[in-house]
């Protein structure tokens, strides 16, 4: 009781502090905090795209490492398997070590993977290096959207989460550009340097306020929150809700067995609803060809263009379209509703994939004259635009917003596991799919899968744009059905304050 009274007194004293004038705006502070994660995701984009240039160079007669077709598919897809180990480790790290330290630790295996790749002399060494990269990516896949969402104010959260898509596109462009003009070992140095910069930036950033609050470190939470968000009225109200909701959790949570805890958690709608939504989102993410296209851009575009456009030129065309689309996505995600952007990307992708397939079939049957055999490249680039605009950024944006704080680590781990499994399955089967039914048949399958996932999400996905993380939690608890979300959250906040005062 004495400790609780001390905490209440310290809370009052802290809340009565006079606002301090900050020389740097809250937006720039938040931008700096998320920049370390953004640099890591640039490296992730490079990891995914690197096989697109690595495998092309290793097929040359003078290659330092000899690969079989089976080796090639494993080098491209083993990231998915390695991601699983990182994903399974992530919930523990996020819960026990925090967001900041997990981000820092995730850079170490990836840097080690790139260092090993520089000295690789055998297929086995390449596979080990890719596995190390995949393990670090698994840690970061669960941690990145959570970290960015917890660092960001609601009005900036959309654009900051959309930078994940921009980072992927940038990393893919970097890998393909350097891999085109440089030897693959030299290109690896450029790609691996992203993680060094990331580690430095992450080390200079604070821990996220929600994590500090969840661990009962309320004074540190208050300090971190105000460093990031300033002393505005809206941010002070949000801080007050955060502190008091977590104070109740920290002081009144009964000790139960792990089995009972997890059994109770999976029955809560605020856990199973967002988890199922994120599973659907990440299945959509992978079956859209998001990781297949960067890994197999050259053979894919060779078939699409029918050899009328040089292979590396078509690869860079795809990268430039993806990069520009990611910039557009950063703008529209913060201006439009999440659902609007997602389903716009789904519609464009499905129509473009089916159009490309029809044109390729028509070309194979001789209905397209020779001078126009390159025309399927137009809907293909439109498909790249659509999936980068909506299907790439929105799942990561939603992943950072949708889980309640208490279950954020567990929910991110489960949904991330789906992401990694689908990564492996889709990338590993892509070469055999291209060989058996061609790009046209594969595109038909992708278009159908996107349409099915989109139909599920149309009925399941709520709108999260402009809402605080606590308001989103209220939605999944069903409180919105009783009363408007603003009044509900305000009443919850007042009840929490009353309970603290009575204590």
UniProtKB/TrEMBL annotation:
InterPro entries for the chain: MFS_dom, MFS_sugar_transport-like, MFS_trans_sf, MFS_Trehalose_Transporter, Sugar/inositol_transpt
Entry keywords, A to Z: Glycoprotein, Membrane, Transmembrane, Transmembrane helix
Membrane topology: Multi-pass membrane protein
Major facilitator superfamily (MFS) profile domain ranges (all copies): 31-465
Transmembrane region(s): 31-53, 73-94, 159-178, 184-205, 276-296, 316-334, 341-362, 374-398, 405-427, 439-461
Cross-referenced Gene3D superfamilies: MFS general substrate transporter like domains
SUPFAM superfamilies, sorted: MFS general substrate transporter
Region described as Disordered: spans on this chain: 1-21
Pfam families associated with the record: Sugar_tr (PF00083)
Lineage, opening ranks: Eukaryota, Metazoa, Ecdysozoa, Arthropoda, Hexapoda
Keyword Glycoprotein (UniProt): yes
Protein name from the UniProt record: Facilitated trehalose transporter Tret1
Name of the gene: LOC112051393
Subcellular location: Membrane
Predominant cellular place of this UniProt entry's protein: membrane
PROSITE patterns tied to this protein: MFS (PS50850)
Domain of life (superkingdom): Eukaryota
